[in-house]
Design brief:
This protein is an alpha/beta fold and 483 residues long. Helix content is 39%, strand content 13%. Helix 1 (2-23) packs across helix 5.
Length: 483
């Protein structure tokens, strides 16, 4: 961490020297400021405000990372990475987080929440003692966050350790032995390390819960409580929660682990992205594949298709391939390497269609998804928001189509209450008959025990790994379990 602090000082000094030369400042007071730049910068950070950055910020109508209290060294990195204009959640959260205050951040999916907590965490860890800890619900989200943090901290020689299920413990233990500045983990695997005493979190000074509603959902509450028991008390750490949805009962649990949190709400919980157009088809189950084929022929871009179960995903991907479309699948029965290959192929265009369960609805950042199609309705209305948030990311335009069977009217009403807008119903087009398709069930999916959801490790509780339905009660059928 001392090395990161040194790098920041060096970048700060170099930046001020460059500006001094360009501006040809001769005033004695400015010369003194130049010679004592590190001290003055620390003073400005204590105030949570960087006057020099404010003076050179972009026009008022264009938000800028300048003026948010970010160190010049990190500003230079952001500029190099082509981060020019902060998103609303970044613009509102970064100054508060840099001051060390607890935050509950609510913003639509795809609005850049990772940098909203990542920039303050990297900067504050260069100034204070301790480690950072980021808790997330899925392996894929953990790897994505690690990539973003490493990109920002690479020139500062930031060290991270990723603790997720589906991978060997050995490399993770080795990463922990290097004393990483930031630990990025799923709850189950972190508890595994705590029980084996290969990880210690007593010195963690900054904690982030990303996708906090899922992290603190009933299935994960025991894990979160156990982790918080091993952390320093709330008064000795900074805690930040970020998500697209934040139900009232979850806020009650979250505030128990925080000290006077500042709520930063860019949009009301459950709000969908403005540039996503939505469409609903009422379709019998037997006609879903035919309608899916019609939609893929109508919309030519990359498409993310959601099914409720992993077995459904396997069946749909086989049917789509039989119809001549390139497709891959991602769910909890796939190994981590298989998931990585599917996502990489989807990003590169090798696969036009990616079939996924809700494991992919949280935090998978694939640029340019033109269509999200809900082949099955999600288990909860919250997950609908996260699903369609995979398109129209960062101001782009996207479209979301939902298939609902005639008996699923209550679920549709629950989604409309959550999003505060009706789903436009489209007329079912004429569907030509499909050729008969026969698929043999792969042994990989026969008699195999249920995979661990959301990153491996311990399950959330005896009944916690079964999601609530739209009305809040437990679903009795195993067909409605989340995968």
């Amino acid at each position: 961490m001392a090395l990161i602090r040194k790098k920041l000082w060096q970048r700060n000094g170099n930046e001020l020297q460059k500006r001094k030369k360009e501006e040809n400042e001769s005033d004695d007071s400015k010369k003194e400021a130049h010679e004592n730049a590190p001290f003055l910068f620390v003073k400005r950070l204590q105030l949570g405000y960087d006057e020099r950055m404010h003076e050179e910020s972009a026009p008022s109508h264009l938000p800028s990372f300048h003026g948010l209290g970010i160190a010049p060294g990190i500003l230079a990195i952001l500029e190099k990475l082509k981060y020019v204009t902060p998103t609303p959640i970044q613009h509102q959260s970064i100054p508060t987080a840099i001051q060390g205050k607890d935050i509950v951040g609510i913003a639509q999916t795809g609005t850049g929440k990772t940098l909203a907590f990542g920039i303050p965490m990297i900067q504050r860890l260069a100034q204070i003692k301790g480690q950072g800890l980021v808790l997330l619900p899925t392996r894929e989200l953990a790897l994505q966050v690690d990539e973003v943090l490493r990109n920002v901290g690479r020139s500062l020689q930031l060290r991270t350790a990723v603790l997720i299920g589906g991978t060997a413990m050995g490399p993770q233990v080795y990463a922990l032995s290097k004393k990483p500045h930031i630990i990025i983990a799923t709850p189950g695997r972190l508890i595994d390390h705590l029980e084996h005493r290969t990880a210690r979190i007593q010195n963690v000074s900054i904690v982030v819960l990303d996708e906090a509603d899922r992290m603190l959902d009933m299935g994960f509450a025991p894990q979160i409580k156990k982790i918080f028991q091993a952390l320093p008390p709330p008064t000795a750490r900074q805690t930040m929660l970020f998500s697209a949805t934040m139900p009232r009962e979850i806020m009650t649990i979250a505030t128990a682990h925080m000290k006077l949190p500042v709520r930063v709400e860019i949009a009301p919980a459950g709000t969908t992205a403005d540039r996503v157009t939505q469409e609903l088809f009422i379709v019998p189950k037997a006609q879903k594949i035919g309608l899916l084929k019609k939609m893929l022929e109508t919309h030519n871009g990359s498409t993310l298709v959601f099914t409720r179960t992993k077995h459904g995903a396997k069946k749909v991907v086989q049917q789509i391939r039989a119809l001549g479309f390139s497709a891959a699948e991602i769910h909890s029965n796939r190994s981590l390497n298989q998931r990585k290959e599917a996502l990489a192929g989807f990003k590169s265009g090798m696969y036009r269609v990616l079939i996924a369960t809700d494991i992919a609805s949280r935090g998978i950042d694939v640029v340019g998804i033109e269509l999200v199609l809900n082949f099955d309705l999600p288990s909860t209305s919250d997950d609908y928001v996260h699903r369609i948030g995979r398109t129209a990311r960062a101001g782009a335009i996207g479209h979301a189509i939902t298939f609902a069977e005639p008996h699923e009217q209550n679920e549709i009403r629950a989604i409309e209450r959550m999003t505060r807008k009706p789903l436009p119903v489209s007329k079912l087009p004429e569907l030509p008959p499909l050729p008969p398709m026969h698929f043999s069930e792969s042994r990989e999916y026969q008699g195999r025990p249920q995979g661990r959801s959301y990153g491996g490790g311990h399950s959330g509780g005896q009944s916690g790994n079964r999601p609530r339905n739209f009305s809040g009660s437990r679903r009795p059928s195993p067909n409605f379990r989340r995968h």
